[in-house]
Amino acid sequence: MKSIFWLFTVLCFGWSSAARADALVQNLPADGSWISFHVILKVEDQEVRAVWSIRSVGVKTVDGVPCRWIELESVEGPKHMIFKLQIPEKEFGKGKNPLGSARKVWAKFPGDAPAKEYSNLAEVDLPLSIIIEGPTADIKRRADKEPIKWQNGQFDSDVFEGVHRKELFGSKYELTHVVWKHADVPFGVTAMKQTLKMQFGEQSRLGKLDMSLKEFGKDAKSALPQVQ
What we know:
Layout: H1 2-12, E1 34-43, E2 46-62, E3 65-76, E4 79-88, E5 104-108, E6 116-118, H2 121-124, H3 126-133, E7 137-141, E8 146-150, E9 153-168, E10 171-181, E11 189-200, E12 203-217
Antiparallel strand pairs: 1-2, 1-12, 2-3, 3-4, 4-5, 5-6, 7-9, 8-9, 9-10, 10-11, 11-12
Helix pairs in contact: 1-3
């Protein structure tokens, strides 16, 4: 995901976490569950396309605390980026941000270098940690469900929206989120749209991210089995 997020890094530099957000991932599915999304990221006149996946690839009890191994993967042509997170199961649930509460985070970048351990997700990929944190203000649920179509049909999904605002060193940032959710898909998310506006002096930048359901299943295997 580092390869796709370098554009957002320019826009998000210096952004720190605010109040508790409505995080993108909150639900904990059965171990072995996975889901993948088509992703389009645009910043000004540049566009990147990728496939993102999230999967549960193991259960481990650490100091008496049940934990899950959760993997995030981005495939952008021949480039693969993988994160593997050890997250206490108690950190999942409504109003929580499990991906931001990992006990351990490993990352494998494109190339032959081995996976490396980091203290948290923000240390290795700040823009990604902001995107999954979700909105922190003006959070609301739309009155009507909306259909999210995919290759095997559609899910009539609940729609949530909100914003994440920040002012830092004279620059103003606003990240607008719209997230579609359905209980029948792993991790509960069927689609997402985000728009990032950054204003610094007379200059402004605009970034857009569009994530749509590709497929899902129950037979997930770890891409980093050596990390246990």
